């Protein structure tokens, strides 16, 4: 990729930052109080069970207070919010953050950079959320862009964040398409919000980013989806790292954190819409966008370090060499599930059983009130969120969801959002932003133009229709 010199490898610049902005020195205790500094990303909403939601519910503080009540020291938690994982890693290198959460590619960099000194060395201790096919990262283009496929990006400018999962997606996707990721496009290394503005102003022709940015821009009618990361069919995940030296000195803190993360995960599964609203309040994101990812059938929120994820993680290691001079990382030595196993046992949960399940632990369930039948196939299930509802209503399949939207409109009810799974990869997406195909008696939603073309090429009888056409034509 061609990078502008002034922006070359922002990761290295971030890691060189001093920690002067921190008000706590995480390596020392004062007046009998143990400091706990947590780095998180409020707008990277697949880390919410170790960040935004965890903070909002106060689970960590509650568990630490319980330890104090049993005769332990007092604890003071400081939450530090960042836009990407790079500055969290910089602060961990400086021993100013004790526990942090970020995506898989930033986790690689974290492990590589922190291993230089024993006090900064980190270990991967849990997962926050994952997607089996890789749809946590996407590439979008402007709403009126003529670009229809990745091949159309050749020679154009693309915004991404070097060292992030979205950069890894861009490099892999371009390579698979036959475009040299080093010279075939000009990549501007930008923070997500800067890249979003650059796309809107026309300074770049595409934006590759991690959740929730693609969904946010599409929801705001500022972009449309060009490439779904699920096309790579490689699992992507976000996880939690802890400084080993801190965990050795304060094992009870890491244990409390992991149990608190399990508390937050349980809450998200049991009360997903309420959780989405809390995350929206804490991140500034629209709740409809949060619920796209955090709702049932979206991101798989599950903490175990599953073998499929670790295998994919090992496959990402060459990325380190592609972006700069990073030390090799021994993944097996970086991953440590012992603290999480202990937290599971204390939580009354079966760690091995959770590891064995690679399906979404929170699929859409219930009864479809329009079709009057149980929701039995998670690959087809969707949801409709009506204004004023405290819970979204399940739909057994996309066609039934269209009927529910049509019925709601006829009854004068406002549809706040509707969600459907992509017919090819299962990616949960906004129904009104999906690209629809009418095939026989059914309607099928897709996330990208390329997906529609693949389906129509294999099924010549299908017809591409707009969302409004589909709602208008579907039989009640």
TrEMBL record:
The keyword Signal applies. Residues 114-275 form the SsuA/THI5-like domain. Residues 1-18 form the signal peptide. Pfam families: NMT1. The keyword Hydrolase does not apply. Keywords: Signal. InterPro entries: SsuA/THI5. This is SsuA/THI5-like domain-containing protein. It comes from Nocardia aurantia. The lineage of its organism: Bacteria, Bacillati, Actinomycetota, Actinomycetes, Mycobacteriales.
């Amino acid at each position: 990729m061609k990078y502008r010199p002034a922006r070359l490898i922002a990761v290295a610049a971030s890691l060189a930052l001093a920690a002067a902005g921190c008000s706590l020195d995480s390596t020392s205790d004062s007046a009998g109080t143990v400091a706990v500094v947590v780095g998180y990303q409020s707008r990277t909403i697949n880390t919410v069970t170790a960040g935004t939601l965890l903070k909002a519910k106060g689970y960590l503080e509650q568990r630490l207070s319980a330890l104090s009540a049993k005769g332990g020291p007092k604890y003071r938690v400081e939450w530090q919010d960042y836009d990407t994982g790079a500055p969290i890693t910089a602060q961990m290198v400086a021993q100013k953050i004790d526990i942090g959460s970020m995506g898989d590619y930033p986790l690689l960099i974290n492990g590589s950079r922190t291993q230089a000194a024993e006090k900064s060395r980190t270990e991967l201790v849990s997962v926050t959320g994952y997607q089996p096919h890789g749809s946590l990262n996407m590439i979008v283009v402007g709403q009126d862009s003529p670009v229809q496929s990745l091949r159309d990006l050749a020679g154009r400018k693309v915004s991404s964040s070097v060292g992030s999962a979205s950069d890894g997606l861009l490099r892999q996707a371009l390579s698979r398409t036959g475009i040299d990721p080093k010279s075939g496009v000009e990549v501007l290394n930008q923070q997500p919000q800067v890249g979003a503005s650059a796309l809107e102003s026309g300074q770049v022709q595409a934006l590759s980013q991690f959740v929730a940015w693609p969904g946010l821009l599409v929801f705001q009618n500022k972009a449309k989806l060009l490439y779904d990361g699920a096309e790579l069919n490689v699992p992507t995940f976000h996880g939690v790292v802890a400084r080993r030296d801190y965990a050795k000195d304060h094992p009870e803190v890491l244990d409390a954190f992991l149990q608190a993360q399990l508390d937050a995960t349980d809450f998200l599964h049991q009360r997903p819409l309420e959780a989405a609203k809390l995350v929206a309040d804490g991140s500034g994101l629209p709740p409809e966008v949060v619920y796209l990812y955090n709702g049932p059938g979206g991101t798989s929120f599950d903490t175990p370090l599953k073998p499929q994820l670790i295998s994919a993680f090992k496959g990402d290691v060459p990325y380190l060499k592609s972006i700069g001079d990073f030390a090799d990382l021994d993944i097996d030595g970086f991953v440590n599930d012992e603290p999480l196993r202990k937290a599971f046992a204390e939580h009354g949960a079966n760690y091995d059983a959770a590891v064995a399940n690679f399906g979404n632990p929170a699929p859409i369930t219930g009864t479809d009130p329009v079709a009057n039948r149980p929701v039995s196939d998670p690959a087809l299930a969707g949801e409709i969120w009506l204004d004023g509802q405290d819970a979204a209503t399940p739909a057994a399949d996309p066609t039934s969801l269209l009927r529910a939207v049509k019925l709601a409109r006829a009854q004068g009810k406002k549809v706040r959002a509707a969600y459907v799974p992509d017919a090819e990869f299962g990616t949960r997406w906004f129904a009104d932003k999906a690209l629809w195909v009418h095939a026989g008696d059914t309607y099928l939603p897709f996330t990208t133009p390329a997906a529609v073309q693949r389906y129509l090429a294999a099924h010549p009888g299908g017809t591409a229709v707009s969302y409004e056409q589909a709602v208008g034509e579907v039989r009640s």
